[in-house]
Amino acid sequence: METLKEGVKRFGYLFYVMDPRAHNYEKIDHVKDYYKEVAPLLFATVLLEQVVRYYQKKPLWRFSDTMSNTFHGFLMDLSKIPFKGAEVFVYAYIYNNYRLIDLPWNNPWTWIACWFITDFCYYWMHRMIHQVNILWAIHETHHTPEDMMFTSPMRNHIFLLPIHWLTYMPMALAIPPTTYLVHYQISIIYQYWLHTEIIGKLPAPIEYVLSTPSHHRAHHGRNRRYIDKNFGGFLIIWDRIFGTFEAEDPEEKPLYGITTQMKSYNPLVIQTQPFIKLYNRIWEYDNLKDRLSVIFKGPGWTPGKPWTGNIEDIPHPAPDVPKYDPQLPLWCKYYAIVHFFFVVNGYFMLALNMSDSSMDSPVLPHCHHTNPWWTSQHEKWRCYAGSNNDPTGKIVIQRRKHIVV
């Protein structure tokens, strides 16, 4: 019974359903790692979504797309290692030395105020990374999937985390670090369930106040009417207040992806191509002012146009254009699946022990999907190195007095 109660409680985290009194912490090291607590639920819902899609007669996941999303999720988590602790240190330093007021950490009103302010900051951060080109180069990765499923939020850029937590640093002038850490995690977890087509429109009061899957499907649409809309994380009221709201129209289904199709599932390409495009655009102009405008204005900006460009310049997406879906030989799929389970094992060992690991293992098997010339040679080298216990070939983790491979 206790296990069931704990499972229900953790399931509530996905929807921001939690008792503030049970999630107040005096010390930073007492704050739960909510990501770890919900991880098994996320994997379960990924599978459950496919069952529901099958009965709803919707297309099931596409192999390469799903694998790419998942490997990006691993890369995203590995990218936390260089920054681990930095965000907490900076936030706590500002709070301890420059805070303007003292709010009690165990007061429910402090908890509620933090929830509200965190969501407000998220709205502006999300809007900014859509409307500042160099930041869009980071966020574009998340918008490349052409399907909307529970694996889609895993596809993110490895540089997104510093942008996220830097946005919240002004909160340190008032909000205790422990309260901030709770909401920083839960606000991201909440957005996981927004990435799906199996949930239709919810009752009108919910749709009016909260961010819902319907609102977020519109946000991910590359149709003209949906571009730069619905930035809210938990509350959609910010979009209604600041003029960026657009309801999902049943007569115009959102077509997902970016306006120029990403024709690759290689994580290295998906992570770097937006910056290559930005670099090439910078050098299209001769004067410094235009070059800086390319960097700091919107992705659609050109000389003589508004900050974000003209919406009319965005081509109408054709619904009959096929999704990028290269067909792989069966042996390649089996190889990727087997390697995937080894990576999952290593990933969870890494998450539990916070030890270092090679970035090669998550990336290499998926590079086979696009077959760059160097992949097979690199894979041979990686496996050879692994046979000699080189950490670049295996995920080797020191755990107490034995080695887990």
TrEMBL record:
GO terms for biological process: lipid biosynthetic process; membrane lipid metabolic process. Keywords: Lipid metabolism, Membrane, Monooxygenase, Oxidoreductase, Transmembrane, Transmembrane helix. Signal peptide: none annotated. It is found in: Endomembrane system. Coiled coil: none annotated. Residues 111-244 form the Fatty acid hydroxylase domain. GO terms for molecular function: glyceryl-ether monooxygenase activity; iron ion binding. It is a multi-pass membrane protein. Pfam families: FA_hydroxylase (PF04116). GO terms for cellular component: endoplasmic reticulum; membrane. PANTHER family: ALKYLGLYCEROL MONOOXYGENASE, STEROL DESATURASE-RELATED PROTEIN. This is Alkylglycerol monooxygenase. It comes from Trichonephila inaurata madagascariensis.
